[in-house]
Specification:
This protein is α+β, with helices and mostly antiparallel strands and about 375 residues long. About 30% of the residues lie in helices and about 20% in strands. It folds into two domains: about 200 residues, Thiolase/Chalcone synthase (Peroxisomal Thiolase, Chain A, domain 1, 3-Layer(aba) Sandwich); about 140 residues, 3-Layer(aba) Sandwich (Peroxisomal Thiolase, Chain A, domain 1).
Length: about 375
């Protein structure tokens, strides 16, 4: 098996940063009333600005275009895109059921005939795609692979997506805003894309990131669904998908909006991530002394202290000065977040050869976790 290196990282963040005070003007008010959840959510999540692929009420980018622009930025005259052999893509928010997301991105790129892989899911989907690229390069099947994560979640968060449900309520005075599980995510998520280039040799000039290992595990066998779209969650925890529902309910129950069971999230997202990392510590034999930068994908700074305490409990006490994340000024961009953290750190001038990086990506959809360990070379 060959060594695999991330040799280039890029991003695409659409339009100008959107402040907390501007959000509702862009996403709209449900039933014409300001959200009661917005200020509470924003106070806890620590996000100050984010990006939306919409301007003056008009879409400026598709999800595929965001991804394609990030991937295209990986290439230049020294390494033309004609050398690309494999493209992997992950997203929470594809704009169609079929064709696959990677197919649409490939069409946007206009590159030659290449192998493509689309990974379904949410935050971990792009990392699962990255693992496929990693294995392909390591096995000698591919020499130039690009992996990306991208989101255009703003389309799912617009007030118009919820209005039919709000209109159907009989007692609006008793229920003046959408259920917290639905309104919560409107103030958490944003748009953008990140991409990584994988090759079997490091850069001759400048730094590269050697992938030492990349591990992914699902806890769906233990836990019910937490975050979902295109379905409703039943009282027994089971799911009923859109294709088994009457068409009339798609709008009146905002079936295609993104929803999250916040109680299930709070009880498990950090706990299970810590349990899995504890197993990896035993398997890989590393300590906090083997980590120079810790890149945690956090949906909210609300979880920061609990994450620190959990890491300490499993014997991996990582001081905050080793943490690196850009949630406050980039926002929670789902499957793109890990790439955006790595891209910013990679180009920050802070890294030096020999530095070791631990990347953590939790996915709350039905609790999937990914951890990646990198060495700067």
């Amino acid at each position: 098996m060959r060594s695999v290196y991330i040799t280039r990282l890029s991003k695409c963040l659409p339009n100008e940063p959107v402040s907390n005070d501007e959000m509702e003007g862009i996403l709209g008010m449900i039933n014409g009333k300001p959200s009661r959840a917005r200020l509470l959510v924003l106070r806890n999540n620590g996000i100050k600005t984010r990006y939306y692929a919409v301007k003056n009420g008009v879409r400026t980018h598709t999800n595929a275009r965001l991804a394609a622009e990030a991937v295209r930025a990986l290439f230049d005259e020294k390494l033309p895109i004609s050398r690309l052999q494999l493209l992997t893509a992950g997203t929470t928010s594809p704009e169609q059921i079929l064709p696959s997301h990677a197919s649409i991105i490939h069409g946007e790129l206009g590159a030659g005939n290449i192998e493509i892989i689309s990974a379904a899911g949410s935050c971990c989907s792009s990392i699962q795609g990255l693992k496929y690229a990693y294995m392909s390069v390591a096995a000698g099947l591919t020499d130039v692979a690009a992996s990306c994560g991208s989101e255009r979640l703003s389309a799912w968060l617009m007030a118009s997506r919820y209005q039919s449900e709000a209109d159907s309520w009989q007692e609006m005075e008793r229920n003046p805003y959408i259920a917290f599980e639905k309104d919560f995510l409107r103030w958490m998520l944003s748009d953008g894309a990140g991409a990584a280039l994988l090759q079997p040799e490091p850069n001759q000039v400048g730094l590269s990131l050697k992938i030492e290992w990349l591990e992914v595990s699902s806890y769906a066998n233990e836990l019910e669904t937490c975050m979902y779209a295109g379905a409703v969650k039943n009282e027994d925890g089971s799911m009923t998908g859109w294709n088994d529902m009457d068409v009339s309910k798609w709008a009146t129950e905002s079936v295609f909006s993104l929803k999250q069971d916040t109680r299930l999230l709070g009880a498990n997202i950090i706990k299970k991530g810590g349990a899995y990392l504890s197993k990896l510590i035993q398997k890989k034999g590393f300590t906090s002394n083997d980590i120079d930068y810790f890149l945690p994908h956090m949906s909210s700074e609300f979880f920061k202290k609990e994450m620190y305490d959990t890491l300490s409990e499993i014997g991996l006490q990582i001081p905050y000065e080793k943490w690196f994340y850009n949630l406050p000024w980039v926002g929670n961009v789902g499957s793109a977040s890990a790439y955006l953290m790595l891209e910013e750190l990679f180009h920050s001038g802070r890294l030096k050869k020999g530095d070791r990086i631990l990347v953590m990506v939790p996915e709350s959809a039905r609790f999937v976790y990914a951890y990646m360990y990198l060495t700067v070379v």
